[in-house]
Amino acid sequence: MEGDADQAARLGGEITAADLSADSILSTLSAAMEEVGARYETGEYFIPEMLRSAAAVEAALQVLDPFLFERRADQAGVVVIGTVRGDVHNIGKNIIVSALRAGGYKVYDLGVNVSAAKFAAKVGEVDADLLLLSAFTTSTKQSLLDVISALEAAGLRDRVKVVSGGAAHSPELAREVGVDAFAGDVKSTLAVCRELMGGS
Amino acid sequence: MNSRERFLAVLAGETPDMVPVVPVLDGYFAPKLIGRRNDDCWADGNCLAEALAAAQRQFDHDGVVAEMGLGPDPDVLGCRVEIEGNQVPLVVETLVEDAGDLAKIPIPDPWRDGKMEPVRRLAEQVGREAAILGSVRSPFEYAATVRGLAGFFADFYRDPEFAHQLIAACLPATLAVGKALVRAGADAIVIKDSFASTSMISPAHYREFAYPAEAEAIAALKETAPVILHICRNSLPILPEMARTGAAALEIDSPVDLEQARQAVDGKVVLKGNIDAVAVMEKGSPADVERAVKVAMAAAKAGGRFILSTGDSIPAGAPLENVAALVEFGRAYGKY
Ligand code: B12
Predict the structure, then answer these.
(1) What ipTM was estimated for this complex?
(2) Considering the entire predicted model, what is its pTM?
């Protein structure tokens, strides 16, 4: 977990050569991301260290991608993620994106300041299992409500589970706006997504 | 003593008649006072100048924060920004990928760019009575802006030498804008270095990358006006260095205990802070504001080296009563 992207890519190459199972590779990367999240929570890592580790994981995944998809029948799930309208914070979201990719999910990242209509359209287009909404300022509550309404209007609300998270976000707020679950860090996000996908 | 004199007295190391009240009331909060949207005012310096003047007339705080150019500041360095719906200008295209791009970083001419005229007009309108604080980004923050935050942070490990070169290449921008603000009528310069906070980077990275550029910029700018260094969120581990930058005052955010901050800087520099902009100003009531003001005064008023402020920008959603309460209780509990 040195966090060096080139090294991770090399490592990725070796892993594929060694013919390890896709699942064991992913669980190693995923555990690494959880560890990174934990080190951030305890103040050992700061944002550059976290971003660096995430970049390393992404680099490894890029090398592994073709192999993983050959060997793995199912993805863990299809995720659409983005930061809601009126909000430009993206660091936490990007970490979550890397963690989800390492967790075997197919992730569509829509970026920041994403409109409700755009979220709904993408969910429909890619038939997403999960929609993850990042919101960092409490003033974006209306944006969360708008996404839920847009999903309902498009007849998609029953087909996708919605998870929200991000600084200044609380389980109470999540309940109020009517999302299915809330998660506060890397570890709990992965756990919540697994649970919603029907895993354990 | 009028507002401006009170504020300048504190920066000069004198004890004023009462603690000056200078909240970070800027482009997030002010536009609604003239019925405009933040997006409009970020794009239009005259809109923001009008809003800031209206805020000062309404709340009678001792200093007005004239944000750089009163417009979408990253665009002074040629980054393309989008404003609509963002509340803040969102940089959509960065300028620098590698050392070959360093020459692309311009030295802005804020007068020619039309960004200083609104500041001058603001100073003309309120600057006799209240102080004008001109705010500019640090070289470190400009570097993060032109490079993109993630790429910039990656450079700390991948190519620290390049990170240093990039920061150095942004120093002229900070100096040009800072000097232009003073020429336009600013009484003090606020250098914003939000990404240097230990909520973002380690104290070691602060010392390696952010501190030297702060010290250099402040040494050059304090010839023209006193400098206030703003680092929001946690700064406790780096306060001794911040005090050594040569800044006349440090802006302290709510995660830092003011009493501890005073000890950390050994009373050598003025502290400006640290009412919680979100929990108290946005979500709280006037009674919460009163409680917070009392706590801040108890921690930092004695000895005169204190400016009552919010720790960071007052959010758009803060009720007007809370801002009025900040000034009211600041006066009530701030007399020497
Ligand atoms: C960096 C930062 C900024 C940068 C953003 C840069 C960027 N590219 O992202 C800038 C300077 C632009 C910025 C601007 C503003 N910010 Co800001 N910012 C922060 C800061 C300091 C760090 C955020 C961060 O990246 N943390 C690191 C990451 C890794 O942690 P995280 O975001 O919490 O993410 C973790 C979890 O939340 C979770 N997670 C994240 N996303 C998701 C998504 C899902 C679906 C799930 C399940 C989980 C999850 O997993 C992540 C990993 O553990 C925080 C304070 C803080 N310490 O949190 C304030 C903070 C988020 N900002 C805040 C505010 C108010 C603002 C501004 C309005 C300005 C202001 N007045 O201060 C503007 C708003 C701009 C806008 N319209 O969005 C407030 C929000 C408070 C509130 N209750 O509303 C905070 C909390 C600071 C405070 N004052 O209290 N900010």
Answers:
(1) 0.89
(2) 0.92
